[in-house]
Amino acid sequence: MRAVVVERYGVPPVVKEVPEPEVAAGGVVLAVEATGLCRSDWHGWMGHDPDIVLPHVPGHELAGTIAAIGDGVEGWQVGDRVTTPFICACGTCEQCLSGNQQVCPNQLQPGFNYWGSFAEYVAVPYAAVNLVRLPDVLDFGTAAGLGCRFATSFRAIRQVGRVGAGERVVIFGCGGVGLSAVMIAAALGAEVIAVDTNPDALKLAHEYGASHTLQASSSTVDQIRDLGGAHVTMDALGSGDIVQQALHALRPRGRHLQVGLLPSGVQLDVGRLIGQELEWRGSHGMPAHAYPGMLELVASGNLKPADLISRTITLDETPVALAALSHGTPAGVTVIRPTG
Q1: Where in this chain does the record put each Enoyl reductase (ER) domain (predicted)?
Q2: Which residues contact 106 (CB under 8 A, 6 or more apart)?
Q3: Whose C-alpha in 94, 214, 223, 252 is 20 to 30 A from the C-alpha of 24?
Q4: Is the entire prediction scored with pTM above 0.85?
Q5: Within a domain: 317
Q6: Are 3 and 119 spatial neighbours (Cβ–Cβ below 8 Å)?
Q7: What's the domain count of the chain?
Q8: How far, in Å, CA of 218 to CA of 210, rounded?
Q9: pLDDT tens digits for 210-228?
Q10: In three state form, how does the secondary structure of 132-186 look?
Q11: CATH value at residue 211
């Protein structure tokens, strides 16, 4: 099969022929119809993830059709249209049995623990707990974006952040995760403030429901406070500077959601956390069993993740697009069509 292969960290990958993945017992192999280009893929390419072993194929947001089924897999057929969370949980540990597959200690992540979906085929382990059947009305490009950015934002905003109607929510970073969060928070009736350096991203944020858009600057916190301060803030990019701004923009007893990765760590003003009774909440993906509620809102038109897709590229265009993330995140979501 053709795949995007990283041979050296930080050096643009190459598109080449590699062996197709073998189907394992309890798992399946998917023909990849669409896969998203995500900043997490950039972190992996830069060498920020210790689980990656070179040479490596990135890609963790995916949708496709089942091409092969391993021993012991029931209820699925070759040709079924599916997606999967980027966290492939084992299904048998304590966390999985409690419904918290997103923090499974035995998880395997395509594009990190093993070769991912920037390819014509990808393996999915533990099919019984990780496959999500796609409605016929949902196209593969939209479905691919659900597996990481949209699903992550959905659970972060709705469940972890407990965002309610009338609350003021500030989203820092309007890439795929941030724009998804803007759309979801607005659909829940929140007053959304979007912050970014990219005017095009802020324009999209306004289209997706942001009541206010702020060009990131040294006065961002003061501007948010002038609007009344935030009940909830979210770092959708992963920046120590953003974290400090987000915490200082919160009202007393506010909640901060950390979704963006922080490979260099961060220092917190713990005194402010204590004195203002602030919450710091991490949020990591969403388990497969929680997808039906999200898919119902998509099918009803209350959520429109398809609107987030700003461009579609081929495998051959992917190395340049991945490397370009070093210079900033383009507005909207980029979808790769491996067979396009």
Answers
A1: 10-336
A2: 89, 90, 93
A3: 94
A4: yes
A5: yes
A6: yes
A7: 2
A8: 21
A9: 999 999 999 999 999 999 9
A10: EECCCCCCHHHHHHHHHHHHHHHHHHHHHCCCCCCCEEEEECCCHHHHHHHHHHH
A11: 3.40.50.720
